[in-house]
Amino acid sequence: MTSKVIAFLFVFILSVQGGFDDWKYETPTRSIQALKPKGLRVFLPGDPRIKLFLFEGYIQNDTQNTSVFLNKRDFWGFGQKQKNRDGWIFEDRNIALEVGQTIVHRSFVSIGNPFIKTNGTNKDALLQLAGYYSPMGIFTVEVLEDPAARGAHCPETATKVRGGYACAQEVIFEDNFDNFREDLWQIEQYIPFNHPEHPFVSYQRPLSSDSNSNIFIENGFLNIVPKLQQDILKQKNESIQTGALDLLSGCTGDTCVMKATGVNVLPPIVSGRLTSARFAFTYGTIYIRAKLPRGDWIYPEILLESSTKKYGSLNYASGLLKVVLSRGNVDTNSRHHSIHEISGGPVINAKCRDSLEFYYKKMSEGYWSDDFHEYALQWTPERISLDVDGVNFATYLPGPAGLRAWLPQSCRGEWYQLFRNASAMAPFDHHFQIALGVAVGGTMEFPDGLKSGGKPKPWNNRGRKATLSFWQDKENWLPTWTQPGLVVDYVKVVAL
To answer: Any idea what DSSP says for residue 392?
Structure first.
């Protein structure tokens, strides 16, 4: 530290020493933890009026009294306002404390404008801290706590975080997409053959040199935009009916190589998918502000998906939570399968999902893709609730029999045995991660018999030529892709 900075701090401390005891303000009660192997943590509950918090004190011995406070400090410093919790925390990880020791301490808070000018001209007036010193307190060390131990600064919560812990109402994950953060997101690269919805896409990492990327950040928004695979293949004089796909470099899934043969064409669409592979949690509230894609046979993937496959991966056995879903078709013979409605909720069996999918209309004019909306899913040990723009539109209560009670008998099958000894919330009782992406087509999201723009869906969900039939209808669906991308403003997860 330079002498100039030292001098500044010295003057600053002297200003604090003066005190402002004529302020009629009662400082919130602070809590103190002695840490191991060494350290001191102080939590001051929040008060919106507090603009500055300073904590100071000394380790007392038998011959000292509180009059030494003015000329002895073993620790002092400014507390940090907690972004994710309502309060301030001061920490000193260098001070060594022992069980049985006593510290004498006090705090200083400024409310309103922390600085006032003393008498003098504008040229020579001095700034002095204005605020209130608390009465001196006594803290006796009874135990040395692990720094990760919960204290008053970290109220208990049902939320669990993989590899760590959470505090009540804490923001445990947040991204505003000012830039792409590889510490938060993994860009997936694979062909989703084992995906129960079998979308007609391959998920691919964008090349750094690709100026027409399918995943990019622009003006503080994440964009995931599906592209035609054919446009990429034709640069190599290949096509989806004769070419090959090699995604081994950067592969994140089970299948990353494919060669077109006969009716088994390559996935016609290149799309993007992100997962919070380094972050997973159990119970909490996720908020996502996004603009949904528009275009025939497009749908967003805004999900919480199992990160551990606790109950197995077959047909969503370990569960999936759809934060929001809205099919991109504008003109269909089914509102459920159009941009006019949103839905969401828990899924464990793709074939029987209608028994658990909750729909919400709301839009009397326009489409859900016209603007940004905040979609929220609250996941607790007792229920799953869905909100849009702060309005609740669905709540799933598993009841005494758990998820089994919601499924028709024909859909229970192996899940009845699988969850027999599990919690009522099973399979939604373990760590899930966030997934963001865009999918197209597939064999589950759009039922046979659906019409869009008066034309029938071009493929049969059980047909061997499903992908090829979709591709051959390009002249009908591609012109509808007026806004094919998913645009995300922010993602935030808050502990219960």
So the answer is: E
Pair 58, 126 in one domain: yes
Q: Please, are residues 406 and 356 in contact by the beta-carbon 8 Å criterion? A: yes
In a domain, 162, yes or no: no
| CA pair distance 378, 281, nearest whole angstrom | 12
pLDDT value at position 480?
97
CATH code for position 122: 2.60.40.2140
Residue 2 has which token pair?
């330079």
Strand pairing class (432-440; 298-306): antiparallel
Query: What DSSP character marks residue 318?
Result: T
Say yes or no to pLDDT of 216 above 90: yes
CB within 8 Å of 26: residues ≥ 6 apart: none
Q: Range of 375's domain?
A: 171-494
- Co-location of 197 and 138 in the same domain: no
- Residue 119 has, within 13 A of its CA and on its CB side, a CA count of 0
Q: How far is CA 124 from CA 10, 14, 19, 121, in A?
A: 18, 17, 22, 5
Of 356, 353, 354, 425, nearest to 386 by C-alpha is 356
Instruction: Check: CB of residue 108 under 8 Å from CB of residue 134.
Output: yes
Dihedral-angle region of residue 13 (phi above 0 means left; psi in -120 to 50 means alpha; beta otherwise): alpha
% of the chain residues with pLDDT over 90: 58
Q: How far is CA 49 from CA 25, 26, 296, in A?
A: 11, 12, 52
pLDDT tens digit string along 83-115? 766 789 999 999 999 999 999 999 999 887 666
Q: Which alpha helices (DSSP H) does 314-437 contain, by range?
A: 409-418
Yes or no: say if 90 and 77 are a contact pair by the CB < 8 Å rule: yes
Cross-strand partners of 150: none
Per-residue pLDDT band at 423 (split at 50, 70, 90)? confident
Residue 16 CA to residue 71 CA, distance in Å, equals 13
Residues in the chain: 496
